[in-house]
Amino acid sequence: MVVVIACGADAVKCGHGVRRRNFQPCRCANMDRARTIVFGASHWHMPLCAPRIAACHDVVGVSDADSPRSKQLADLWNAPLYQSWEEALAAHGDAELAYVFVPHDRMREVCLALIARRIPIVLEKPAGLSLQELIDVRVAADAAGVPITVVLVQRGGPTDRWLAKAGRSVYESVQFIAGPPSRYLVNGSPWMLDVERAGGGCLVNLAPHFVDLFLRSAGAEEVAVTAALSSTLHHSQVEDYASMTLTTADGRIATIEVGYAFPGSPLKRHCSFMRIGAAGAATIWSDGSASFTSVDGTTETAHFDVDSDTLYGVFVDQVAEQLNRGFVELPRISDLETTMAVIWDAYAYAHGR
């Protein structure tokens, strides 16, 4: 028997469990708007967050050296633009929330400065150029009682919910191949192609989302890792393709492939997902087609929007809702530490260390 589930492409589930379209206002619009500073406004994810930040927060300061791109967002938020994060923090040290989307080599120092002022943080991955930099931030935040949530937007999203039909992951396969690295030269983040500033390429940037999903589903905090990296296609400083295999102590396996190898096009990327568990097998493809076959042989299918860009606005709504509760239901920096330990182990393996 085949069951078909129709899901509107523009329908998403907000942080409050209410299905809505095109990010129309939800309950966060009625909450107190936290005084917010935004560090790294030129980050390519920030335009995806910007409309909901305008709806949910009171932005009091914006920092970025990329003035033309950042000025547009500062104007949207009716906030002053500063050329450095130090200036913005000095002017708004009483802020109630900070978004940290700065280049990876600045994340540690920015976060430590915010923690010293007891300002809660919304932090982009990877939280630094090494696991130790992330640990420094997590330890300081724990000691000061400062909550940090991390932008792992795939959690709780359509892909995560569909794969969960299979039950606890036993075998898992992920491909997420984004557009060419040259797009960072035009989207305000050229530092992403400088290995000294970014720490790596597609592996450090894309894989954390899917490592996090597998670890949570498998119920594992430690895995054995093998990995291979390549920059053969685009010959840039950072890898444009990475393949990694994770194996848990009880034999659960995930293969994760990520890349900056898909041609620049309106399609944006290729993605595919498969999870096999005790309940059956769930799959999802780039065109949004999905299927789940249970162990009794029944198959149900669905079609939904797999574009992860839409998840960033949902995440901002959740931040606004949970700020006063310390982001209790959102990914925390401790979760990112578990995930990034795997990522940095993969780099070490690939480089023979």
- The number of helical segments is 11
**Biggest sheet layout:** 9 strands, mixed
> Terminal Cα separation, in Å?
51 Å
Query: What is the overall silhouette?
Result: globular
- At the fourth level of CATH, the homologous superfamily of one domain is Dihydrodipicolinate Reductase, domain 2
Q: How big is the Rg?
A: 20 Å
Task: Produce the secondary structure layout.
Blueprint: E1 2-6, E2 11-13, E3 19-21, E4 35-39, H1 46-56, E5 58-63, H2 67-77, E6 81-82, H3 85-91, E7 97-100, H4 107-116, E8 121-123, H5 131-144, E9 148-150, H6 158-163, E10 169-178, H7 183-186, H8 195-198, H9 202-218, E11 224-230, E12 241-247, E13 253-260, E14 270-277, E15 280-285, E16 289-294, E17 299-303, H10 311-322, H11 333-350
Parallel strand pairs: 1-17, 4-5, 4-7, 5-6, 7-8, 8-9, 10-13
Antiparallel strand pairs: 2-3, 10-14, 11-12, 12-13, 14-15, 15-16, 16-17
Brief write-up:
With 353 residues, this protein is α/β, with parallel strands linked by helices. It has helices at 46-56, 67-77, 85-91, 107-116, 131-144, 158-163, 183-186, 195-198, 202-218, 311-322, 333-350, and strands at 2-6, 11-13, 19-21, 35-39, 58-63, 81-82, 97-100, 121-123, 148-150, 169-178, 224-230, 241-247, 253-260, 270-277, 280-285, 289-294, 299-303.
Structure description:
With 353 residues, this protein is α/β, with parallel strands linked by helices. It has a domain at 158-307 and 332-350: 2-Layer Sandwich (Dihydrodipicolinate Reductase, domain 2). Helix content is 32%, strand content 26%. The protein is built from eleven helices and 17 strands. It has helices spanning 46-56, 67-77, 85-91, 107-116, 131-144, 158-163, 183-186, 195-198, 202-218, 311-322, 333-350, and strands at 2-6, 11-13, 19-21, 35-39, 58-63, 81-82, 97-100, 121-123, 148-150, 169-178, 224-230, 241-247, 253-260, 270-277, 280-285, 289-294, 299-303. Strands 1-17-16-15-14-10-13-12-11 form a nine-stranded mixed sheet. It has a six-stranded parallel sheet with strand order 6-5-4-7-8-9, with helices on both faces. It has a two-stranded antiparallel ribbon with strand order 2-3. Helix 9 packs across helix 11. The longest helix is centred in the last third of the chain and has 18 residues, at 333-350. The radius of gyration is 20 Å and the shape is globular. It starts with a strand and ends with a helix. The relative contact order is 0.17.
